[in-house]
Amino acid sequence: MFTGIIEATGKILEVTTDGTNKHFWMSSPFVNELKTDQSVAHNGICLTVVEIINNRYRVTAVDETINRTNLKSAKINSIINLERCMPVNGRFDGHIVQGHVDETATCKTVEDKNGSHIFTFQLNNAQNKNLIVEKGSITINGISLTLFSVNDISFSVAIIPYTFEHTNMHALTPGDEVNIEFDIIGKYVQKMMAKA
What we know:
single chain, mainly beta, Elongation Factor Tu (Ef-tu), domain 3, seven-stranded antiparallel beta sheet
């Protein structure tokens, strides 16, 4: 389980294809603390560390993950938000994040508010519009954020300077796709309501 509090950013160093799978070689400030079989969220995607060599590590994404996330457009030197699993004795600073991306959304606008930034996104799947709630939680590229200005399939989030500088939000421009994980409580409620 994750909390949506980004520890660091890394870069994609190399991408190789093996059948329908893709292997991503990554850099990370904490690569020396990693071990194989460990789960790390990459832009909100829970991926397993499968190899560590010479201050870089490899993760593998299956076809389903690639098609559902923005990994399909990942390139060499792309900046990736990283978060390791929350330790049992850790502080719960964000919200419950599984590392299971539900869909992607498209960045529509970025507004500079003289220090902070307002990002507006549009869901790519209108069927999920009931999962975006005013002042509710959402995960964008692995970052735990609060929604506002929710309007049908669009919504905004405010980014403070620290988050802007220490995540890949500073590299985001209109037209870019981001990974979205909706609040797990909302997903359970939606499923139960559908059965009622």
